[in-house]
Amino acid sequence: MSKKINLEHPRDQITTIISRIYKRGMTTTSGGNISIIDDNGNIWVTPSAIDKGSLRASDIICVQKDGTVIGKHKPSSEFPFHKAIYEARPDIKSVIHAHPPALVSFSIVRQIPNTNIISQAKHICGPIGYAKYRLPGSEDLGDVIADEFKKGYKAIIMENHGTVLGGSDLTDAFERFEALEFCASTILYGSQIGTPKYLTDEQIEEFEAQATGVLPEMESVHYPSDEVEKRLEICKIVQRSCQQGLMISSYGTVSMRWNKNDFLITPTGSNRWDLNIHDIVQIKDGKREADKTPSRAAWIHQEIYNRNPDVNSIIMTQSPYLMAFGVTGEYLNVRTIPESWIFLQDINVVKYGDHFRKNNNSTIVDNCATALIIENDSVIITGDKLLQTFDYLEVAEFSAKSIVLGNSLGQMVPINDDQVEDLRKKFLS
């Protein structure tokens, strides 16, 4: 599994993250740049005019504190604004600049995405700055961006250009980058089918105030082979979800029933891309593995397993097209193609806050549906085998995407009642 990238050399960290950004379609072969400033004040940065889809560690440039350039290429043409950010903000240790499509959409209409569209983004992204257009690669561009960072921002929309984000390390910057692009995408897709609705600051604070790690700790823990096998399976599905844009660094919970109502679940506060089997938390007899904090949604997973003996795996995540329905309240009619209805049937929506522990909402945990959307928060997918549950997530996201994209062509014509009844008789009876 992936190692914790912050323990790697800056060259390797940069190539890992630029590869993720490129493969997710959030930058082009020639676009975007990443840098890290080390403890000696040396800046490691992506090279100019080198294919972002095949960068190697040996391609990364080091610009030393005295200005000496070490490497076989020229540093990125945008190096001046990276340097300006580090000079303006000593707390910033890494910078990402790219041209992800949704955030570019906001930059060309001169708008800033409202991160109150989902629960956690406000705290991950912080307030968003706005830098006026200046010539790319110029000192002027460095000045206007540095001025925004001096105001305390860590995320900036660059007018007619893209976005630039800083972080305490590269993982922190990438989490902010991913979350901001996710917000922008969700708002865009939601706007194609309805009117996005936003959370109040009070609702978000209530979400953040929920207790984590409320389960008591186990005194001892055992790791039999079948348990370890499930840990590995969870990590593989989380990695796959991240690669396919069905999960982001800062949000996504996966669990598997292990023995009776005992289960394994992903932790809270861990970057999903870098998850490994040691991060997974065992929940046994209502107690958690010592020195680990399970997802704050662990109680939902526990109740689903307690009350639904046929459910053996759960994925709780944010994917952009499903969340377009989650932020607008529009009905997601999965009668698009036979496979969608057979796997998912109807997808209901519950109100934001119903997933808070104090509410213990029966719509979520009793006779739980294969797929359920929580407004402005997430989608919950349940199933037997974890791969099957992941398949349901993919089918749900593809169905949502087809409806969002098809909306510009005309009104959706779903499979009719007679056709649904034929499907019910053939596949579900």
UniProtKB/TrEMBL annotation:
GO terms for molecular function: aldehyde-lyase activity; metal ion binding. SUPFAM superfamilies: AraD/HMP-PK domain-like. GO terms for cellular component: cytosol. PANTHER family: 3-OXO-TETRONATE 4-PHOSPHATE DECARBOXYLASE-RELATED, FUCULOSE PHOSPHATE ALDOLASE. GO terms for biological process: pentose catabolic process. This is L-fuculose-phosphate aldolase. Keywords: Lyase, Metal-binding. Residues 12-188, 232-404 form the Class II aldolase/adducin N-terminal domain. Pfam families: Aldolase_II (PF00596). It comes from Algibacter lectus. It comes from the Bacteria. SMART domains: Aldolase_II (SM01007).
